[in-house]
What we know:
Layout: H1 24-35, H2 40-56, H3 60-86, E1 94-97, E2 100-103, H4 115-139, H5 143-169
Antiparallel strand pairs: 1-2
Amino acid sequence: MHPHDSAYALPTPYPPIDQVHPNGCDLTMAYDLYAGGISEYTAIAQYVYHHLYAREQGFEALEKEFLSIAIVEMRHLALLGSLILKLGGAPKFVSPTKQGYTPWNATLIDYGCGLKDMILLDVKSEQAAICDYLHGAKCTQQAQIAALLQRISQDEELHLQAFTQMLHSI
């Protein structure tokens, strides 16, 4: 674990996904968690933006927290990309729609207006991500996928706590 993100990811290892088999429903879910509206890719972009804003506004401690959380989200992105490959997909930055797949785009980011608004948006994003991960863990028939999604949701809980503490510090 990288020293800068140790406070934002549990020391518990991520479960293996070596016994995962292709499944269309699981693949759709994985793509949505990977690059949908509430996804790792969106969170990374949003938190890096918020990191840059906080730095520009002189909030050095918060700036570092945003970036550290984004780094953990990058780890989650890589895990989900590996899962997509195991499920028979390609880890492209797309989300499922009824017509196929839509490319990820920056309109999915909640930029916010001012630091407090940004943190409130991040709290909301983490709450939604936790729900999505736990829902996915319940819906899949594959134990290794469920275990991975539950484990990632635990990191998201830490992020939610961090953003909640940020709100109280400004």
